[in-house]
User: What shape does this take?
Amino acid sequence: MSNNISPDFYNIVVNGHDDYKINFKYISNRINKEGEVYILNFESGEYEWMDEIKFIEKTKSEMKSIDIIALPISLYSKLKQYRCFYQPSVMLIVKPKNKDESRNFFNAQYCKSESGFLDKLSFSLKVPDDLGNDFIKHLLREKLCSSNNIRDTRIYKCRVSNKSQHIAFYYMPRKKNVSYMKCTFNPAKTDLSFLTKIFSLLKFVSGPSYERLIRTSKLLRVDFAIDVKGIKVKNFHLNLNRSRNITLYLDYKGEVETKVYGKSGKRLQVYNKLREQNLKSKVPITRCEIQLKKLNSEIDLESLFDIFNRIPDLRRYSRRGLKERLSISEYYLIKQLGVTAARSSLGSETEKRQLRRNLQSVEKGFLGEKLIGSTRNELRAIQKLLFNP
Assistant: This one.
């Protein structure tokens, strides 16, 4: 790749190949107007615009030669339903202009945590069929939750929730006299006294079998989060160890709203927290969130702290250090598209090893430990409450 690159964050131009450009603003505008898909290959520098039908008709081998795909979010949602959809190393997902885009954001203060916290906890409970029905009825009778019937699903029969407390139970009856309930709540927003009421009720309904019920429950998902003040999403230079995928969500102007590192069970998500909450401030606040999902039956509530062994290394890089140690092309690729894109653009293992050494020399510490460090006390309190509400 050529080092002759325009130092414009939203308009990288690499002149090593004819007309080889990655222009976020132009790409977002064209996708929103024409609904087309943009694909690019790093090795050849070739790119192509195509309609939705032509893109869907591409074979798996053709898809594997693509390094970057940019497409509208509506098409991406549709493609996720296809199991054969092959996700390249870099995805650009373009959002349309919202109808409410012109409305004023609330000029209010967002209360952010100075350290990491738990943002979501989800686990499944294996219950006898009659106990599951009885517990759901008690939740509704006591007005601790309200009911939402779920349609068009083969898994859960109903959902009861309390929106103000950010907690929900999904009930899944089975034919063999055994049912499952999934409990999901936000430890940062669900009041511990309310959680105590909920599980005291479950203990009352289940009687002597309560301890076994909790002990055999399985962890499904845990989210760790931290809010960082003063740094915009586009200026976070991160990488998730062993991750080979990055997804960028662009607004209709081509500006980065969200970065997602990794996919499937382990992901790091970086996004504008103020924008999500319709708040505005002179000082940006960026949410960094590690999501651990698809844990299956590997971790139960009794061994809850084993979850820390599943957290991948989070690497953060100095912007000044990147500029000093990397070539111009590598620097701007990482700045705009992340480490995954820079690694994909290199042809030989020698170049990739050199990039890895350069990145190691400019790593900044502490963010990973800040993100998960103080959550241990939260997990301990939740575990204690669940076993003895």
